[in-house]
Amino acid sequence: MIRVLLADDQSLVRAGFKALLDAQPDIEVTGEAADGEEALRGVRETRPDVVLMDIRMPVLDGLAAARRITGDPDLEGVKVVMLTTFELDEYVFEAIRSGASGFLVKDTEPEELLRAVRAVVEGDALLSPGVTRRLIAEFAARSKEPAAAASLTRLTEREREVMALVGIGLSNEEIARRLVVSPLTAKTHVSRTMVKLGARDRAQLVVLAYESGLVRPGWLG
Q1: Distance CA 25, CA 73 (A)
Q2: This model's pTM is above 0.90
Q3: Are the CB atoms for 96 and 118 separated by under 8 Å?
């Protein structure tokens, strides 16, 4: 079972998500929270696989709560997906940099929400359809100057190539077509790259691709 904690200050939103998720045979909602502090307590008590976290909440906002979760070694297995009303919320970029596995807009189709929960458990980054590349481009434009790329020396030439393709927003299937390999081979390269660089998930791999200078804004070919 995939265990999910819902954190949103609107009870109606939580109720809708809970009804949808609990109706699935492989997903269960283990807790709810109306603010960031409640979310932190709930995560520590129930150790969910995924937290669906609203960005704007009282007491402690979702971004601050996400930082504490992703920065706590004891909660290493917990994935955070940020929920926002706007596709390009100004806080989403910092959330991804801080370790969140991605974000969803609240009017996401039910099927996409279910896919999202399952995807992040498997280690995939989650960005709402249609905004992935715009988000990455905007993130890149706001990011700092490239840091030293010494860590990239651990990667093979093919792994660096795959990391660059992840950085411009390609899925495993798109990477496979680009490199003329199987999707499984592409996924294996992505997984090995994440392990070598210590990336929590695909979202952090995108961040590292930009911060290392491997990918630059505008490389969305």
Answers
A1: 30
A2: no
A3: no
Residue with tokens 């994935």: 79
Q: Do the beta carbons of residue 212 and residue 146 sit within 8 Å?
A: yes
| Backbone angle region of 193, left / alpha / beta, with phi > 0 → left and psi within -120 to 50 → alpha | alpha
DSSP string, 62-121: HHHHHHHHHT-GGGTT-EEEEEESSTT-TTHHHHHHTT--EEEETT--HHHHHHHHHHHH
**Residues in the chain, total:** 221
Per the listing, tokens 């995108």 go with 206
- What's the order of all strands across the beta sheet hosting 102-105? 27-33, 2-7, 50-54, 79-84, 102-105, 126-127
Give the burial class of 150: count Cβ atoms within 10 A of its Cβ; 0-12 exposed, 13-18 middle, 19 or more buried. exposed
Separation of alpha carbons 105 and 52, rounded Å? 11
The rounded distance, in Å, linking the Cα atoms of 139 and 9 is 27
CA distances from 141 to 1, 17, 27, 80, 108 (A): 39, 33, 37, 24, 26
Bridge-partner residues for 53, per DSSP? 7, 82
- Name residue, tokens 């249609």: 130
pLDDT, tens digit only, all 221 positions of the chain: 999 999 999 999 899 999 999 999 999 999 999 999 999 999 999 999 999 999 889 999 888 899 899 888 889 889 998 887 765 556 666 777 667 887 787 888 888 889 888 888 876 666 544 445 555 556 556 555 555 455 788 899 999 999 988 887 788 888 999 999 998 999 899 989 988 988 877 777 877 887 777 876 554 44
